[in-house]
Amino acid sequence: METKSSMYLSLLPLWFLCFIIINLVSSSSSTRYDDHIPLRETNEEEDVHFPKNFLFGTASSAYQYEGAYLSDGKTLSNWDVFTNITGKIADGSHGKVAVDHYHRYPEDLDLMEDLGVNSYRFSLSWARILPKGRFGDMNMEGIYHYNRVIDAILKRGIEPFVTLTHYDIPQELEYRYGSWLNPQIREDFEHYAEICFRYFGNRVKFWSTFNEPNVQVILGYRKGTYPPSRCSKTVGNCTRGDSEIEPLVAAHNIIRSHLAAVSIYRTKYQEQQRGKIGIVMNAIWFEPVSDALADRLAAERAQAFYLTWFLDPVVFGRYPREMQEIFGEDLPQFTKDDLKSSKNGLDFIGINQYTSRYAKDCLHSACEPGQGGSRAEGFVNANALKDGLALGEPTGVDWFNVYPQGMEEMLMYATERYKNIPLYVTENGFGENNTGVLVNDYRRVKYMSSYLDALKRAMRKGADIRGYFTWSLLDNFEWISGYTIRFGLYHVDFNTLERTPRLSASWYKNFIFQHRAQSQNDDA
Ligand code: FCB
């Protein structure tokens, strides 16, 4: 492995080049990529109206909502197994029942209809459809269940926006061959995706292959806090793993699986079914902690090791330059076939935007591993403090500060880098510790209102944003935090499962109503 200082020396000419480029860029008033896309002149006074077909929705995922963990032919998923291990989940809970959406979806869809949303983003449980992956039969009960759900959504005038996998996979694939670490998983994912297109694609017009593969890989294979709990012993509490290399391997297999699913959709289904396919990424905005060139480059590197890690290969057919420089030959290679399918690898990008962080350079200054001092972190401390403070307003949830400006920056970054590709904000929402706020969630209202303003500013600058989904309709199982953090527009009593609207539910309803009225006026 290259030492840090020798790598730094080998990068010197590059720093110099970057220095010149950054100075050129900052001395003009233009944006970095404005020779590629025609961004609009901004006019702060001008109000932007959401187009009539803009999707307003709420988002959920199978493991966090459904429950019914062994009903109607479903078998165990990786999350069923993981939550069963003592000490993994903050309150020792699990998703066996969750908010029982499996049985209560008609009631929940009524709530959505009442809010006036025109789209619902949810995920399918792979283990419900293929309990043993491609090593067993399809579970028709699972297919019938989702058929009923999709029909019920459409009956209410709502558009289904479907994720194929939101962190959960059949445990069988973990047992058999180590899931994402094994290239075989691509065949399983292809098989699963094709079944979904075949059975549901006549009614589903929005597909995303993965939800937040960056989070899945970093937490599952670098930090080891999500299944399959793999990491180096120096990094976390894992019995096996390699935090430097395994995330690269898992990510590579995910990207290739995405490309394979897209290729099947394009060649066999899209023309007839007329849907769109994309991927959903967790998107943190990284702000340089200082104006120094090294920190500005660190902020850029932070994106390379988080967001563009997955998006650049799918859009451009290669990993981000910063990753190539740091990992060199350890970075997996794409085959010719992968590159062929990556030409057209996305119709849209889903952006899950909640929070922002300061990024501080760790190539020039010493940082501890875990605080930026490792290759896997791209030598960036992405939790840096400025004058002792983190970026944005703290919420009480450790990973989560409120910084609406980050939404605008993030959307513009994706717009500029990916040449104005259509964007959907597939998740944004406010989480509170279980503080006893039953219905008066004014902080959530303030959060949503300020982030939606930021989204509009990006639209005003020309970003092609086509939808906004808030996370989430209901309080639900928040992964390793269990039921201790609440994100719902509706409060859920986890004993009775009763749903009670919060202030934010009426606020969102009113927001959607007003914007519908505006877009109708625009048409008149
Ligand atoms: C996102 C996840 C989603 C939910 C929210 C709060 O990163 O995609 O499942 O947990 O965070």
From TrEMBL:
GO terms for molecular function: coniferin beta-glucosidase activity. One of its GO terms (biological process) is carbohydrate metabolic process. The keyword Signal applies. The keyword Signal applies. It comes from the Eukaryota. Keywords: Glycosidase, Hydrolase, Signal. The active site is at 427 (nucleophile). Its EC number is 3.2.1.21. It holds the Pfam family Glyco_hydro_1. It catalyses: Hydrolysis of terminal, non-reducing beta-D-glucosyl residues with release of beta-D-glucose. InterPro entries: GH (IPR017853), GH_1_N_CS (IPR033132), Glyco_hydro_1 (IPR001360), Glyco_hydro_1_AS (IPR018120). Residues 1-27 form the signal peptide. Belongs to the glycosyl hydrolase 1 family. PANTHER family: BETA-GLUCOSIDASE 47, GLYCOSYL HYDROLASE. This is beta-glucosidase.
